[in-house]
Design goal:
The structure holds two protein chains of two kinds. Chain A is mostly beta strands. Chain A has one domain: Sandwich (Protocatechuate 3,4-Dioxygenase, subunit A). Chain A is globular and about 50 Å long. Helices cover 3% and strands 28% of the residues of chain B. The relative contact order of chain B is 0.21. Classes of the chains: A mainly beta, B mainly beta. Chains A and B meet through β2, α1, β4, β5 and β10 of A and β5, β7, β8 and β12 of B.
């Protein structure tokens, strides 16, 4: 069994949908990417298990980012919903989904964010929910604004919502970002472009879905998330 | 291959504290647990500077070596109510994190035998387009560490980067992202 792999290789012999660690266009990677080869970790009981979170940790309104303050946040109200699946297309049930995002003006409720766009006292920008029996999640929020960052001159992040998921095992853990269809900034964004396979990149972009909209209330965007696993063959010794 | 293409990873970015970290997550067990241990560490970049916008997650078995997960069906080992085996902590301005947990018991190795007690560690940060995965082993387990099948896969000169060092009444596990002192990281 080969034990050493480079971080850039797909561990399972298929085109790796994940971005590389070393991606110079995203300046933040330069001093933070590993420079020694990675060691391939066999799937032991440690990796075949993973954090399990159920409904007990999530409040009834945690999925609704428009109802976490006394007043309503400003911005375009949207519903974001989809299914969490494994690579075989099976639903991943009862798994915690956490999101966070900028407000409609493109500003995070975070002390480090100095973008001179207004904070919204009625928008904290965080939500949680647990997938149902079909792996479905649903959030109500406002469409996040684009915002400038200092990666390169005149750099702007496309509008995005950060997602964090656990799945069934340690190896299925995923932190990613959901983008919006037709955003002209996607073509210029090194974080989005760091996913080299165009098909994989497109899987980060949500789809406008008229069926998800609520008339006279909110637009709807559909986004399915596919997590790694279930595990392949555990290590034999 | 049939089936679905996986959703790619993207960086956690600098603002994850909005949604992911809080005061409760760093405590896998309560601070007053009789056998609570503290794991402290600093995350350092390739220039030797602390990383103030990183997040560490740990996943581990309980003191009996049992995982709080349905795939660990060894009913003969006790599982405490409320023990999840999961903790999460953001780094502070000095790149430091601190987690409170218990020392895990040994867990089975594939094909028989046992793995040395270990804590599985994920690192997320601005500048990391996908998480880094490593393991923390315990300094008082020299014998078990010497025969651990996963440590054996790590080049000998890098193995010390995976063993915590005593630090007062805590254990220190510094994580170097890059360079000559880089921590050994795993590909899943």
């Amino acid at each position: 069994m080969s034990t050493i792999s480079h971080g850039e290789a797909a561990p399972r012999g298929e085109l790796d949908p994940d971005p590389p660690y070393d991606y110079p266009d995203y300046v933040g990677t330069r001093l933070r990417h590993p420079t020694r080869p990675l060691v391939t970790l066999p799937e032991t009981l440690t990796e075949l298990t993973g954090p399990v979170y159920g409904h007990e940790s999530v409040g009834e309104l945690d999925h609704d980012l428009t109802r976490q303050a006394p007043g309503e946040p400003l911005g375009e109200r949207i519903i974001v919903s989809g299914r969490v699946l494994d690579e075989a297309g099976r639903p991943v049930r009862d798994t915690l989904v956490e999101i966070w995002q900028a407000n409609a003006a493109g500003r995070y409720a975070h002390e480090v964010d100095r973008h001179p766009a207004p904070l919204d006292p009625n928008f904290h920008g965080a939500g949680r929910c647990v997938t149902d029996r079909e792996g479905r999640y649903r959030f109500v929020t406002v469409k996040p604004g684009s915002y400038p960052w200092r990666n390169h001159p005149n750099a702007w992040r496309p509008a995005h919502i950060h997602f964090s998921l656990f799945g069934r095992a340690f190896s299925s853990r995923l932190v990613t970002q959901m983008y919006f269809p037709g955003d002209p900034l996607l073509a210029f964004d090194p974080i989005f472009q760091s996913v080299r396979d165009p098909k994989a990149r497109e899987r980060l972009v949500s789809r406008f879905d008229l069926d998800l909209t609520e008339p006279e209330w909110a637009l709807g965007f559909a986004w399915d998330i596919v997590l790694r696993g279930p595990a392949s063959t555990p290590m034999e010794t | 291959m049939s089936g679905r293409g996986r959703t790619p990873s993207q960086t956690v970015g600098p603002y994850f504290a909005v949604g992911l970290t809080n005061e409760r997550w760093p405590q896998v067990v309560s601070r007053d647990h009789p056998r609570a241990i503290r794991i402290r560490g600093r995350i350092v970049d390739g220039a030797g500077d602390p990383v103030p916008d990183a997040m560490v997650e740990i996943w581990q078995a309980n003191e009996h070596g049992r995982y709080a997960h349905p795939a660990d069906a060894r009913e003969e080992l006790p599982l405490e109510e409320g023990f999840t085996g999961f903790g999460r902590c953001g780094t502070d301005g000095d790149g430091e994190f601190e987690l409170v947990t218990v020392k895990p018991g040994p867990v089975p190795a594939p094909g028989g035998g046992m793995q040395a007690p270990h804590v599985e560690v994920s690192v997320f940060a601005r500048g990391l387009l996908k998480r880094l995965v490593t393991r923390m082993y315990f300094p008082d387990e020299e014998g078990a560490n010497a025969v651990d099948p996963v440590l054996a896969l790590v080049p000998a000169e890098e193995r010390p980067t995976l063993v915590a060092v005593p630090d007062g009444d805590a254990l220190r596990f510094d994580i170097h992202l890059q360079g000559d002192r880089q921590t050994a990281f795993f590909a899943l």
